[in-house]
């Protein structure tokens, strides 16, 4: 997810201060990792510099002035492009789990240990998400079901890989030897 474009999209309905943008972002998108205030203001500065957002007002307060930003027509075009552009399917194939299993196979480490631990972690997270889904609405329901679907796909991959460990180990070692010219 592009944090900059997401913040830009949150400006589309109405201008907002950085504090308000952070609250909206955290409500809709940051269930597991809230956005830092510094990142909001740095991003707003870049969006303004690039002509995608513009300062539309300044409100004096007890502390520093609160600057309000709005989206520009170029910003709306950027959001449209981002929203309607398909995500490259190969982006989903770059998994840390897949890389760790491959390294374990190449090095002779026990792959079962990785798969068992990851299976347990996935199942625990799925239990938490199933409970959350029972009460979820709106964007929280959307993100919860999305994460559940991905965890389910990962579990299928873990199970399939577990049944093929010996074959995979032989193939990966052979490919490694071939690459080294052995």
């Amino acid at each position: 997810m592009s944090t900059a474009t997401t913040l830009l999209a949150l400006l589309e309905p109405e201008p907002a201060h950085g504090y308000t943008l952070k609250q909206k972002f955290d409500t809709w998108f940051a269930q597991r990792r809230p956005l830092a205030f510094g990142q909001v203001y740095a991003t707003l500065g870049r969006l303004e510099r690039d002509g995608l957002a513009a300062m539309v007002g300044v409100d004096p307060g007890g502390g520093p002035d609160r600057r309000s930003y709005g989206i520009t027509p170029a910003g709306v075009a950027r959001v449209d492009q981002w929203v309607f552009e398909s995500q490259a399917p190969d982006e989903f194939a770059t998994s840390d789990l897949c890389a760790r299993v491959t390294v374990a196979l190449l090095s002779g480490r026990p792959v079962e240990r990785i798969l068992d631990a990851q299976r347990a972690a996935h199942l625990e997270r799925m239990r938490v998400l199933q409970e959350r889904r029972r009460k979820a609405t709106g964007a929280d329901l959307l993100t919860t079901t999305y994460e559940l679907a991905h965890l389910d796909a990962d579990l299928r991959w873990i199970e399939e890989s577990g049944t093929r460990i010996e074959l995979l180990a032989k193939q990966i070692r052979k490919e490694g030897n071939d690459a080294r010219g052995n």
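The first helix runs from residue 3 to 11. The longest strand covers residues 53-59.
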